[in-house]
Every structure is written in structure tokens, then in C-alpha cells.
Amino acid sequence: MAQENVFRVMLRMEIKPGLDKEFERVWCEVGDSVVTHPANLGQWLSHSEDEGVYYIVSDWVSEERFREFETSDRHLRHREKLHPYRSGGWMTTMNVVTFLPGVASVGTTHQDWESAR
């Protein structure tokens, strides 16, 4: 699939004080409900420098397929498990226009990236 066809969802999640590590653990546990969906291309969890703020980026084959997931029982169960940790946030969506791979990413696996951190 060409990178230009990627539909990207970005969530900003504000986590209740003191629950960061528990949120991260539960997010990893329930992540399969997203990444095993046939239209999902991958998902990332990032912790901001701002205390208690996380960003979740999720890529999809199309907006239509994401919207199917977004309204599914699978997504509702996923959200219910994360909701107790959340104090606020927002969501934005976008279409990837183009992708320029960095020289360090060519031929690099996720494991290589993790060990370089």
C-alpha cells in the first residue's frame, strides 16, 4: 500500500495523576483489540513531556474502515477499559499526504529501534 493512502488518527489523552504506569500497562493489554483489526496498520503510544499527557497515533487503510472500527463493539470494550484512567483529551484525524523515510529507518526493524534507544 502506498503511504499516501494512510488515514491517521491522533488522540491526546490526559491521564489522572499517579495512574501513568497503570494506564500504560492496560493500554498494552488491550492494544490487540486495535492492531488485530484487519484495517489497522499500526499504533504508537507516546508520553509527552507534559505530566500525564499521552499521544496515541493509529494508522488505518482508509477513513471508512476506521469509522467501521470506531463504531464497533470491539472499540467500545477497548474504550471502557481505558476510560477510568482518562481525565480529558481530544482526537483529530488526517490523511497522510506523503512519507519521506529517514536514512536511519531503511532496513531497520522495531527491535533494532528499541535497542538503539
How would you describe this structure to a colleague?
A four-stranded antiparallel β-sheet has the order 2-3-1-4. 34% of the residues lie in helices and 30% in strands. The longest helix is centred in the N-terminal third of the chain and has 11 residues, at 20-30. The radius of gyration is 15 Å and the shape is globular. The model has no long low-confidence stretch (mean pLDDT 89). It has helices at residues 20-30, 32-35, 63-70, 73-82, 110-116, and strands at residues 7-15, 40-47, 53-60, 86-95. The protein has one domain: Alpha-Beta Plaits (2-Layer Sandwich), CATH 3.30.70.100. It has 117 residues and is α+β, with helices and mostly antiparallel strands.
Record the SSE blueprint.
Elements: E1 7-15, H1 20-30, H2 32-35, E2 40-47, E3 53-60, H3 63-70, H4 73-82, E4 86-95, H5 110-116
GO molecular function: monooxygenase activity
Pfam families: ABM
InterPro entries: ABM_dom, Dimeric_a/b-barrel
- The total tally of domains equals 1
Q: Trace the largest sheet across and list its strands.
A: 2-3-1-4
Distance between the termini: 28 Å
**DSSP E strands, number:** 4
**What is the name of the CATH architecture?**
2-Layer Sandwich
Structural class by secondary-structure content: alpha+beta
**Shape call:** globular
The biggest beta sheet is recorded as: 4 strands, antiparallel
Averaged pLDDT, please?
Answer: 89
Q: Helicity, in percent?
A: 25-40%
How many distinct helices? Answer: 5
Q: According to CATH, what is the topology?
A: Alpha-Beta Plaits
SSE order, one letter for each helix or strand: EHHEEHHEH
Using only C-alpha atoms, the radius of gyration works out to 15 Å
The unreliable regions are: none
> Class in CATH?
Alpha Beta
Note the beta-strand portion: 25-35%
